[in-house]
Amino acid sequence: MAGKMINKMMGFLGLEDDLEEDIEEEETKRGENEKIVNDFTEVDPIVNNKRQNKVVSIHTTIAAKVRIVKPTTYEEAADICDELKNRKIIVINTTGLEIRIAQRLLDFMGGASYALGGNLEEIEKGIYILSPSSVEVNSDLKNELSGKGIFGWK
């Protein structure tokens, strides 16, 4: 009842029309804003495709196998490189070969070790070590091997 009386007084004073116009303006603005919001299309939420990092220990206990070879012909080079592909360490003794054949053999094995990411290093004259990429041969081991010989029988 009090609301009717206030409306009549406002109408008598001429304030009611201004209030209604303000309300109408707000409603039209709301309608425009709703139109703008409705114009946007709904999109799928962004999915994070990053994989969760897994911690893997790099210190695994794999038994390294070493093969000692004394080739007699160049044809044995492919078999030696197959051993390298199987992640084995190969010690090669070329002292019994002719210099030409030994050089060709070492060139072949050097290329194969490069292609597989391995290393070919000379331990002493005519003795080489061919190691896969997962094996590191440091100079302490090479010095020890060259000082004692391959088998330590001096």
Walk me through this protein's architecture:
A four-stranded mixed sheet has the order 1-2-4-3, with helices on both faces. The chain has two domains: 2-39; 66-148, Translation Initiation Factor IF3 (2-Layer Sandwich). Helix content is 47%, strand content 13%. It has five helices and four strands. The longest helix is centred in the first third of the chain and has 25 residues, at 15-39. Helix 3 runs parallel beside helix 4. It starts with a helix and ends in a 6-residue tail after the last helix. It is rod-shaped, with a radius of gyration of 43 Å. It is α+β, with helices and mostly antiparallel strands and 154 residues long.
Give a short synopsis of this structure.
By secondary structure, the chain is of the alpha+beta class. The chain contains five helices and four strands. It folds into two domains: 2-39; 66-148, SepF-like protein (Translation Initiation Factor IF3).
